[in-house]
Amino acid sequence: MSDAFVEVEHVDLAYDDVSGNAIEDVTLSMQEHEFIAVVGPSGCGKSTFMKLCSGLRRASKGSVMVGGRAVSGPLKIVGMAFQNATLLPWRTALDNVLLPLEIVEPYRSNFNRSRETYARKAIELLRSVGLEGYEHRFPWELSGGMQQRVSICRALVHEPKLLLLDEPFAALDAFTREELWCTLRDLWTRHRFTVVLVTHDLREATFLADTVYVMSKRPGRILARRAIDLPRPRELDAIYTDHFAEIVRELRERIGRIRSA
């Protein structure tokens, strides 16, 4: 038996009988606590791969295992955050973070009795990402970067074992994006969840990940695996080093060859 936490073996996924496979013959394994990034051309199936890991989509062929069990539907041990924060505008930052505890078992059954305990936990998460004092603000009172911090806290409040991030910083300016790289780095260092990051930003992938996978054009296949041999903990200054630039250049060249093929 494999000791991998996420095991994807020879997976195809087709959304319908007309458009063909979105991804094809994808094989990949992740260890528990590993941080991987998936990069590739637009439309290559990066987000589709993430949906397979979460159980939001079932493979047309092959198998997906998470935590030693076959994935047959949405997983409770998963937290997700997306490019848009998708906060509910009528709920405060705190109440947005609490939302998974209201709807995911076993928290749901105890929510009313344990709300104060859950709220303290959510407030501590918000504080850990620099949002102390903003717990009772509504989304429209927060900047884009603050909203994305709330979104990440919401994805983590039920202590998921697997965090799935789909272009979570793409809509932010460069300075805010780099600031949130460090926020995510610190959260991962502290909580050691397993992460799949889908991104177009090769610097982001290189700074955050242990391993970067490069996908082909549709139908998406894994064409390359690049271990990131930068020491941890990584400070932001690492992005200005020659070795960092070499890794980014290598990934960019691989994707360039894929796009022109």
Task: Give your account of this protein's structure.
The chain has a domain of 173 residues: P-loop containing nucleotide triphosphate hydrolases (Rossmann fold, 3-Layer(aba) Sandwich). The radius of gyration is 19 Å and the shape is globular. It contains seven helices and ten strands. The model has no long low-confidence stretch (mean pLDDT 93). The longest helix is centred in the middle third of the chain and has 22 residues. It is an alpha/beta fold. The strands form two sheets. The chain has a six-stranded mixed β-sheet with strand order 6-7-8-3-9-10, with helices on both faces. A four-stranded antiparallel β-sheet has the order 2-1-4-5, covered by helices on one side. The protein starts with 5 loop residues before the first strand and ends with a helix. 38% of the residues lie in helices and 22% in strands. Helix 2 runs antiparallel to helix 3, helix 2 packs parallel to helix 4 and helix 6 packs across helix 7.
Strand content: 15-25%
Q: Report the span from N to C terminus.
A: 38 Å
Overall SS class: alpha/beta
CATH homologous superfamily descriptor of the domain at 6-77 and 160-260: P-loop containing nucleotide triphosphate hydrolases
Main sheet record: 6 strands, mixed
